[in-house]
Amino acid sequence: MDLELRQLRCLVAIVDEGGFTDAAIALGISQAGVSRSLASLERALGVRLLRRTSRQVTPTSTGLRVVAHARRVLGEVEGLVREAASGQASLRIGYAWAALGRHTLAFQRGWAEKHPGTELELVRANSATAGLAEGVCELGVVRGALDERRFDSAIVGLERRLCALAADDPLARRRSVRLADLAGRTLLVDRRTGTTTTELWPPDARPATRETHDIDDWLTAISTGRCVGMTAESTAHQYPRPGVVYRPVRDAEPIAVRLAWWRDDPHPAAPAVIESLAALYRSA
What we know:
The protein is α/β, with parallel strands linked by helices. It folds into three domains: 5-68, Orthogonal Bundle (Arc Repressor Mutant, subunit A), CATH 1.10.10; 88-158 and 256-283, Periplasmic binding protein-like II (D-Maltodextrin-Binding Protein, domain 2), CATH 3.40.190.10; 161-253, D-Maltodextrin-Binding Protein, domain 2, CATH 3.40.190.10. 36% of the residues lie in helices and 23% in strands. The chain contains eight helices and twelve strands. It has helices spanning 5-17, 20-27, 31-45, 61-86, 104-114, 215-223, 233-238, 270-283, and strands at 50-52, 57-59, 89-95, 118-124, 139-142, 151-159, 161-166, 186-189, 208-211, 229-232, 244-248, 255-262. The chain has a five-stranded mixed sheet with strand order 4-3-5-12-6, sandwiched between helices. A three-stranded antiparallel sheet has the order 10-7-11. A two-stranded antiparallel ribbon has the order 1-2. Strand 1 and strand 2 (57-59) form a beta hairpin. It starts with a helix and ends with a helix. The mean pLDDT is 90.
């Protein structure tokens, strides 16, 4: 079986861009070339990877697994090229929404001073594993539970839960809010990467929910006043937005910030990253 990187790039581009036309534009090749690459990949694997209709293109169940592996392969190849070109080891740390909040810049600068031989790159990846499963990073900053069969993690700090509100919302005049204040509202959540579910509320007092998958869309919707959000403290530091205010939720449990890695392939820099991040969170 002969697989080529261009076939994997085409598959990932189709999924990321949502179709063959946009994938061709992103890759700088013809739409016919994208179609041929996908067809040759499906023939080589002997499986169907995508479902195509007149309106959309979606991965099959097998396609989802192949895409995840393809991302890892492409990420490793890109890392190999970078290391060969620079002569330095690299470390990519993924995050879903807000990296490390107020500690992000201090961590980057501190790492560059203490570990000049290992180039650090922070990568935003909106997935439950912060890019680990997709192969775009070696370590991930996550704020939720991971599959313990595949990943290990260590808690490096705690963050308060904050409520995000439109600036003219009546609750915005308060210094803090309670969970009960939000029970009758519409809560905007990201079920894939977010830290908030209706399980925080009693069964008979849970807010209605709407779903989003992007921080900018989340903030834009909240600024209209039609819904509210709840998020980790780091989001407020990394994404200040005119028209949106953040208030502590004083009766909600804090959020654990974890550094995660593949159980069977730990990065040698993981202990140093854990030590650095834990020190930053302790200092706060």
